Amino acid sequence: MTGAAVDTPAHLDxxxxxxxxxxxxxYADDGEGPVHRxxxxxxxxxxxxxxxxxxxxFVRATGQVTDAERxxxxxxxxxxxxxxxxxxxxxxxxxxxxxxxGATWHHPEGPHSDVADRLDHPVVHVSWNDAQAYCRWxxxxxxxxxxxxxxxxxxxxxxxxxxxxxLEPEGEHRMNVWQGEFPADNTCGxxxxxxxxxxxxPPNGHGxxxxxxxxWEWCSDWYDPGYYANSPHDxxxxxxxxxxxxxxxxxxxxxxxxxxxxxxSARSANTPDSSTGNLGFRCVAEV
Length: 287
Prior knowledge:
Elements: E1 9-12, E2 15-19, E3 36-40, E4 43-46, H1 52-62, H2 67-71, E5 73-77, E6 90-91, E7 94-101, H3 128-138, H4 145-153, E8 180-181, E9 185-186, E10 216-222, E11 245-248, E12 267-270, E13 279-280, E14 284-285
Parallel strand pairs: 10-13
Antiparallel strand pairs: 1-4, 2-3, 4-14, 5-7, 6-7, 8-9, 10-11, 11-12
């Protein structure tokens, strides 16, 4: 083992909770509402996102080739690239994302970078397919969207964040998100520019770290912005089909000026073969 690779799941008792958000901060087009009552069985969930150390063990054991490695490139935040880095194709609606050839889970900013000095950071540049493969190897699975939100809330209902409604209670940073003016100026007030170690901030009421901020996390569900309107009460698992999978929690690039999705109710999605430098996952274990 590479060290710090195994994370013991936190046991959650399950039960009922209110899922979703219809408040003024909700993104209606994302389908954050209506608020609805959900019932869940007990389950275990990783206290942290899967780390580079853990993913290294997985790749060594299985020879897994990730989607980013097969495609030959992935998306990297431009601010993490050296000043002399050659121009590459950007994303039309989000020009801060750059197509970087050779960017993979073990070379997060391209061939000039490495994870050797960040083994306790969350693995990134992993697609939903890659996350599924890791979970199968570990004898676990991805959380459903309902399980993820229940876990992220940490026992609180109707709150924006795992600890309450204040982004920075009494001036204390509780998660890794963009500080300053996006995308040109990050003051790093929370201590980090890119990813942070998985235990960087205090846990929520369930003992879980970084459920918001740091990296987006894949869920098992197909994404449908209208799903909540007819979601079943007991153990909802998302629609039967779709084109994109749910991702939750926001990331180190989220900022209120354009993406206030670092909230426990916020939703987003991506295609199952997509990978970026701010997207990871955590696992669920049956109990």
